[in-house]
Amino acid sequence: MSDRSGIFAGEDPFAIAQGWLSEAEKIEINDPNAIALASVDADGLPNVRMVLLKEIEAQSAPSGGAFVFYTNYGSAKGVEIEQAGKAAFVMHWKSLRRQIRVRGLTSREEGPQADAYYTSRSLKSRLGAWASDQSQPLASRTALMAEVAKVTATHGPNPKRPPFWGGIRITPLEIEFWADGAFRLHDRFRWRRPDPNSAWEILRLNP
């Protein structure tokens, strides 16, 4: 597309996304990798929450390009995503006046990649993953800290990744790049494909 230049240039949407994130990491004050993750429950009622995006896999990767975050599979989002097999998110940077919207299919990442990320976390975060029955009712903060002490004694200073905790990979069917424009005449480009093995269709959208 002739007018897709500048910050929108390139044929690999994952490379564009990584480039935008890298820019945001230099100037965004807090959590430039934060995304608002959307899922639906068994009744079709939407749910949205903030999580941290941990990896943008390149189009040349075995996954063919994807976005990965990590969570407790028993959490509300973990259960909802497992049931639907689909999710969406938006990543917005006020500092850049840009956002990326993604909709796609989901799968678990439970192999060495998940193990490596888990190991990279602080010890307290690793123990917290064991201790928290995420999204379930909690009697008190004291009860949570008692559970942390219990798992610390059980799993020691080098805990393995919990079997109920790991990555969720979103393989996109749609990616939209948005940049603020004067007089609300924003620039929007949507990459869309019917399935992960198909070529992208790229369209400029009205603001």
How is this structure best summarized?
About 30% of the residues lie in helices and about 35% in strands. It is α+β, with helices and mostly antiparallel strands and about 210 residues long. The radius of gyration is 19 Å and the shape is elongated.
Polypeptide structure, described:
This protein is of the alpha+beta class and 207 residues long. It has one domain (6-122, 164-205): Electron Transport, Fmn-binding Protein, Chain A (Pnp Oxidase, Chain A), CATH 2.30.110. It contains 5 helices and 9 strands. It has helices spanning 13-27, 76-84, 112-120, 123-131, 141-155, and strands at 34-40, 46-52, 55-57, 66-72, 86-93, 98-109, 165-179, 187-192, 201-205. Strands 1, 2, 3, 4, 5, 6, 7, 8 and 9 form a 9-stranded antiparallel beta sheet that branches. A hairpin with an 8-residue loop joins strand 8 (187-192) and strand 9. Helix 4 (123-131) crosses helix 5 (141-155). The longest helix has 15 residues, at 13-27. The protein is elongated and about 60 Å long. The chain starts with 12 loop residues before the first helix and ends with a strand. The model has no long low-confidence stretch (mean pLDDT 94).
